[in-house]
Amino acid sequence: MQFVRRYTVVFLTIIGFLANRFLMDYRIFPPEELPEAIISLPLSKSISNRALILNALAGGHGSLGRVAECDDTDVMLAALDSYFSRQGASSGMELEVSVGAAGTAMRFLTAFFATRSGSVVRLDGTERMRRRPIAPLVDALRACGASIEYLGEEGFPPLRIEGRDLQGGDVTLDGSVSSQFVSALLMVAPVMAGGLVLRLSGDVVSQPYIAMTLNMMAEWGVESSRDCNMISVPHAVYTPIAYHVEADWSAASYWYELQSFSFGTIGLRGLLPSGSMQGDSALMRIYRNFGIVTEPSEEFPGVLDLLADPDLTPRFEADMSAVPDLAQTVAVSCCMLGIPFRITGLKTLKIKETDRLSALRNELMKISFVVEIDDDSIAWEGGRCPVKGDSPIIIDTYDDHRMAMAFAPVAWYVPGIIVRDAGVVSKSYPDYWSHLRAAGFLIEEIAADA
User: Fold this and answer.
1) What amino acid positions are annotated as catalytic residues?
2) What is the value of pTM for the model shown?
C-alpha cells in the first residue's frame, strides 16, 4: 500500500488528540497593525478521502503523494491500514474501526467495507456520529446485496458489516440528505457485478461534490454517464495512478472572511483559481460582494492575493445548497460587516458535526446579532440585541471545526473573544491557529471554562 503516511503512529496521534483537545480554550486579540501573511493552505480533505478510497479500490497500488493531514483523513488512513494489514487473517475475524467525528469516513467506509468479501467490520464513531443518520446509504447498499446490521438504534451507527460480492443493479436514493451517501455508492459501483444505475430523488444537495467524485473516478479509469438525476456506472476495474491533491478552498474561506474585515495583505498559496473540482471555489464570486477581489500574485508564483475593494453589496441573498460548508463563514461575515442577508439551501446543516443553524443563532446572539433560522435557511435583517456587560464573550464550538474557524476572525471587532475547544480545528485545518498567529493575531491558551 502506498498511502504515504505514518500508519504505525496514526492511532496514537488520534488518541493523544482526543485526550488533550478538549482542554484548550483560546483568547484571541487582533494584530496591532493590518494582518499580513502568505498562508500555505492545507490540502483538501474532501479530495484526499476520495483519493484514499479510490486507491484502495484499485488495490492500493497507486501513488498519492501527500494527502491532507487532519483528523478526518487520519481516521480514513488508519481504517484502511487496519483492513489491509488484516488481510489473510482468519476468515470471519471481526475488525473494529472507529471514525470519531468524521462523517465522510463513516459514509465512505460503510460502502467500501460492504464490498470487501470475507471481511467482518464493526464501524462506530463518537456519540454525535451515533445520532447522524445513515439509513439511506445502508438501504441502498442492501438493495445491491450488502449485509449490514445496526448494532444500536435503527438507522444510525454503529454498524456491523459483512463484506460480500455485491450485485449492483438499479437503486433509488434520496439526494436531499447528503451528497456523501451518493459519492460512497458511486465509488464502489464499479466493483459491483452488474454495475449501478443510481437514481437520485428529491432536491439533490452539494452537487459539486458529486461531480468531484465522478471526475476523480474517471481519472482512475472508470467512466460514468449522467442524465439529470440518473447516474450509470458500469462494472469496471480501477487503474492505479499517481495523484496529487490540491489545496482546500473550504479552508480559504476563513481568510476571505478576515480580509473582508481588515483589508490587510493576505495571500493564499496552493489554490487552483480555475479548473478546481471544489465547489467552494465559489468563494471568489461570493466574497466579491464583501469587497474582496481575488487575483494571482504578481510577486509570488502559486499565490492568490486577496485584494480589498470598499464596494460592498447592500444586501446578500444566495442559495448555498451547492456549497453549504461556506454558510457559517458567510453568515458571520455578513453580520460583522452590517450586511442584511438571507441564505437558503441549508437543510443539510442540521445533521453535520452539530446542528449548525442552531449553533450559529446561539453564538451570533452573544455578539448582539438576532438571526432567524428555519429548517433550510438563516437570515438577518439588521436586528440587534444588547450584549451583557460581563466580559469576555465566549464562543462555544459544539465539537464543530467550522464554528471555531468562522468565529475566530471576529476578534478583529471583539478583542479578547474566547473560542472554546479550540483544538477542534484539527478535524480539517490543524495549523489554523499557527497561521492566524503568523498573520499577527495574539492567541492565549487559557484553562478550559476559565
Assistant:
1) 325
2) 0.89
